[in-house]
Write a structure and sequence with these properties.
It is built from 6 helices and 2 strands. It is mainly alpha-helical. Strands 1-2 form a two-stranded antiparallel ribbon. A hairpin with a 5-residue loop joins strand 1 and strand 2. The protein is elongated.
Length: 122
């Protein structure tokens, strides 16, 4: 199953929430993202059927290996791109918003070049 931008956003949100709380449930995602319960429920069903997450009987969401790999990749892109834009003088809010949009479409080659450049110029 191909994962689209919205699926990547949900995986990234689950990762962020899992760093703040012991257990993540759909209602936590609803609150974090501001989406409706039915929308989040449908997304969790698609992610579960796609093999990206598991949901326990109690409703706790955990990653499969593939889901966690993708979530980590998207989160790293967000952090690195936000840092890049901040260094360029972009405001924090705009930097984070732009990083959020770009993180899903930037090629691995371009992202790795930006990351390497930032690391060399710390």
């Amino acid at each position: 199953m191909q994962l689209y931008e919205s699926g990547e956003m949900y995986l990234e949100t689950i990762l962020i929430l899992s760093r703040r709380m012991e257990n993540v449930r759909s209602i936590d995602i609803v609150k974090e993202m501001g989406f409706s319960k039915p929308s989040v429920s449908n997304a969790m069903k698609n992610l579960r059927e796609g093999g990206y997450i598991s949901v326990s009987g109690e409703g706790y969401i955990t990653f499969t290996d593939e889901g966690e790999r993708i979530a980590q990749k998207i989160f790293e892109r967000h952090v690195v791109l936000t840092e890049c834009f901040l260094r360029l003088g972009v405001s924090e809010e705009v930097a984070a918003d732009d990083a959020c949009r770009i993180e899903h479409i930037i090629s691995d080659e371009t992202f790795n070049a930006i990351k390497t450049h930032l690391e060399k110029n710390r």
